[in-house]
Amino acid sequence: MKLKNDTLLRALLREPTPYTPIWLMRQAGRYLPEYNQTRARAGSFLALCRNPDLATEVTLQPLARYPLDAAIVFSDILTIPDAMGLGLYFTEGEGPKFERPLREEWEIRDLSAPDPVAHLGYVLDTVRQVRRALAGSVPLIGFSGSPFTLACYMIEGQGSSDFASAKKMLYERPDLLHHILTVNAAAVTAYLNAQIDAGAQAVMVFDTWGGVLSHAAFHEFSLTYTARVVAGLTRTHEGVRVPSIVFTKGGGGWLESIAATGCDAVGLDWTVDIGAARARIGARVALQGNLDPAVLLSTPQAIEREAGAILERYGRGGGHVFNLGHGISQHTPPEHVSALIEAVHGLSGGYH
Amino acid sequence: MKLKNDTLLRALLREPTPYTPIWLMRQAGRYLPEYNQTRARAGSFLALCRNPDLATEVTLQPLARYPLDAAIVFSDILTIPDAMGLGLYFTEGEGPKFERPLREEWEIRDLSAPDPVAHLGYVLDTVRQVRRALAGSVPLIGFSGSPFTLACYMIEGQGSSDFASAKKMLYERPDLLHHILTVNAAAVTAYLNAQIDAGAQAVMVFDTWGGVLSHAAFHEFSLTYTARVVAGLTRTHEGVRVPSIVFTKGGGGWLESIAATGCDAVGLDWTVDIGAARARIGARVALQGNLDPAVLLSTPQAIEREAGAILERYGRGGGHVFNLGHGISQHTPPEHVSALIEAVHGLSGGYH
User: What mean pLDDT, rounded, does chain B reach?
Assistant: First the structure.
C-alpha cells in the first residue's frame, strides 16, 4: 500500500518534498492528558509498553491531535536488557532500573542476544497493530537504544549523570565491556530487523549516552557497535527502502564519524548549528532536528521564531526532518506543539 | 617575589616549560580525608568557604600531599549571587540552592553588582592568606562562575539538568535575562579583579552550564558576557601578566568563539580530542585539560595509559596545562591522584 504522506521517508533519503516533515521524540508522552489517562488505565509505564492494544492507542494519540508526518512505536529503549533477564522496573520520578545489573564476570560471559520474536513479541505486535491502524496515512518508525547506551544501564543498574560504573569497567576491563557490546550489537540488529519485518518503515538508534565518553572512547565503545548495527540492518523491505537514523546526544563533535556508519540520517541535539552540520555531512546524509525542547515551554511567538531560525539555517532543499534536539518535556503545553507543527509546515514550503 | 615553580603561568602564556604542569579542578575536595575532617570542623561547606583560616587550610591540603603545579582558592562558584542577597544554602546531596531565586521582574530590575571588598571580603582574605602560606612555591588561581552560569542558578533557584526556568526566560523574556547577565558580567569582572588585587596570579571563568544552550543562544547569552568579563580583567598586576582561562563544559563545538574572547587559555572537557582542539585554536591560546575524571576511578595502569594518550595527542611544545575535563569525583582513591601526577610529570618531559 502506498503511503498517503511519505514526506518523512523521502526527506530521510534526501529526495525532494513539498515541505519539511516533522515528528517529535517522545511525541506520545506525559505532556498529553490522553496519554496520562491510558497510562493510568495500564497501571504503569511498563504495563503500558507490554500491552500492544494500549501501546497502539498511545502511539496514535499524538497523530489524532496533530498533523505529524510520522508515528513512532511506543516502547522503551531498555526492552532488550529486560528480555535478557535483567529485570527492568521503574520507580516514580527516578526512571528505569534493573533488578539484576551486571556485577560479576560470569554474568557478563553468560549474556546472549534474545530472540526478538520469542522475547520481544509485545513490541512486534504493537508495530503490526499500529501499521494496520495507520492505514497508510504516515510511516511508522521503529527504534532501539544503542549497544553502548544499553550497556550503560545494564552495568550501572539505573540512570546516572556520569555512568561511573560503566566507565570504570571501560578503563579497567575493556575486554568485558567489549563482550557486552558485541552481544548488544547482535541483539539490537535482530530487534530492529524484527521491527522492520513487523512493519516499521524507518528505524532509529538512540545513542543517548555516547556523549558522556571521551573522543577516543566514543569511537571505540559506542560508534563501532552502532556501525555494526547499521551494517546489519535490512535495507529494503517488500521492495521499499527502510531508512535508518542514528542520534547521539552530545555527539556534535563527531558528526562526520556518525555519518560514516552508513546510516541514512543523523539526529542532531539542539547545541549544534544545523547549518554548520549540513556543511559538514549534509552531502552524505539527511539531518534530523534540532529545536531545544525548552523552546516549547515559552510562547507561540518564540516557537515560530526559533523554528523559523532552524529552517533558515538548514536552508533550501530536501534532506531535513524537523524534530526536537531531545525528547519533549512533560511540562509542554499541548497547544505549543500545534504552534510548532504549524510553523514548520507553514514556513518550510518556501525552502522546497 | 619570584615563583619557585612558574610552569603553570608559563604554560598558560604558551611559553616553554620543562614539563607539562598539572592541577585538578576541585583538587581540594571530598576525595581527601583531611578535607572532610576540616569540613566537619567548619560545620558545613558554606561555613568552610566563609572562614578564611579553614578555607586556606583546605586550599593547601592537596599541595601538601601532591607535587601539584598550582593552588586554586577554595570557594564556591555561587558566592556572587549570595552577595547579591539571594541567600545561598546547601542541602545534603542536593547541591546549592537559593532562598530567594529571581521570580519577579522588580527583583531582576533591583539587582546590582556587589562590591567585592564589602561583600566578598572572606574570599579576598582567603586569597591573601593562601598567597602568604604558599610563599612563592606555586601560583594561586582565582575563579568565578560565568555570568550565564550564575544566572542559571539565580533564576532556577537550584541546580537542574536542563535549567528549564532559565531557558523559559531566555525565549520568553530575553530582555530580562540580558539585564541579569549585564549585572552579572560587571559583578564577575569586579570580583575577579579583586581576587587579582588580593594575590591571585591567574583567573578562571567556569561556564559550567553554557553547554545546555543552543548554538545561537550560547553565543548571545553566555559567550557575549564571558567575553565582556575577559575584556575587563586586569591583565598585569605588579608588573606580572595574569593569565585568564575560560572553561565551558560541553563547549567543544564552540572552541574558536571561546578562544576569540581574548582569554589566554581555553579549558576542554573530556569529550574533546585535544589534538584536534590544538589544531583549531592552539595557535592563539593555551589549552587546559582534559582527562575524563572517571579514569581516576580505575587503575594506576589505566591512568598512566590515558594520561599518556592525552600528552601524545597534544604533541610537542608548550601551551598545555594538564587537568581533568571536569571536577574530580569524590569517589577517587587519593593514591590515584599521585599516579596521575607522576605520569604527567614523568611522561611529559619527552614532549618539551
Answer: 97
- CA-nearest of B143, B119, B153, B148 to B233 is B143
Cell reading at B217:
543562544
pLDDT digits (tens, 9 = 90+) for B195-212: 999 999 999 999 999 999
Test mutation, B212, B215, B299, chain A, max A CBs within 10 A: B215
Annotated catalytic residue A82: no
Q: What is the pLDDT of residues A285-294, one digit of tens each?
A: 999 999 999 9
Taking contacts as CB-CB distances below 8 angstroms, the residues of chain B near A216 are 273, 309
Tell me: the pLDDT tens digits for B255-275? Answer: 999 999 999 999 999 999 999
Given this model, what pLDDT does residue B161 score?
83
Q: Given CB atoms, is A312 within the 8 Å cutoff of chain B?
A: no
CB nearest to A171's CB, from B302, B325, B329: B302
A171 neighbourhood in chain B, CB within 8 Å: 294-295, 297-299, 302, 306
CB atoms B167 and A309 under 8 Å? no
Nearest by CB to A168, from B218, B253, B294: name it.
B294
Tell me the residue type at A26.
Answer: R
- Pick from B215, B217, B271: CB nearest A214: B271
Contact B273, B282 (CB under 8 A): no
Which residues in chain B have Cβ-Cβ distances shorter than 8 Å to A218? 271
DSSP characters for A94-107? TEEEESS---SHHH
pLDDT at site A92: 77
What are the tens digits of pLDDT across the range B294-315?
Answer: 999 999 999 999 999 999 999 9
User: How many pairs of residues across A and B have Cβ atoms under 8 Å apart?
Assistant: 96
Residue of A nearest to B301 (CA): A172
Average model confidence (pLDDT) for chain A?
97
Cβ-count burial B306-330 (b if 16+ within 10 Å, e if not) = bbebbbebbeeebbbbbbbbbebbe
Beta strand A236-237 pairing with A240-241: antiparallel
Separation CA A315–CA A303 (nearest Å): 18
Task: Determine the Cα–Cα distance for residues A270 and A282; give it in Å rounded to an integer.
Answer: 17
The residues, any chain, with a CB within 8 Å of residue B222's CB and separated by 6 or more, are B146, B147, B148, B149, B207, B210, B213, B248
Per the annotation, the verdict on A305 as an active-site residue is: no
pLDDT band at B162 (very low <50, low <70, confident <90, very high): confident
What's the average model confidence in pLDDT over B173-178?
A: 98
Catalytic residue among A31, A35, A66, A153: A153
Distance CA B285, CA B281 (A): 6
Q: What domains sit in chain A, N to C, each tagged with a CATH number? A: 1-27+287-352 (no CATH), 73-267 (3.20.20.210)
What cell does B314 get? 597534544
How do the residues of chain A divide into helix, strand and coil, expressed in percent and rounded to 5? 55, 15, 35
Pair A26, A334: CB distance under 8 Å: no
Contact criterion met (CB below 8 Å) for B31 and B297: no
Residues 235-264 of A with CB under 8 A from B: 250, 252-253
Question: Is residue B214 a contact partner of residue A269, using CB atoms and an 8 Å limit?
Answer: no
| Helical axes A174-198 vs A147-156, angle rounded to 10° | 120
B175 and chain A in contact, CB less than 8 A: no
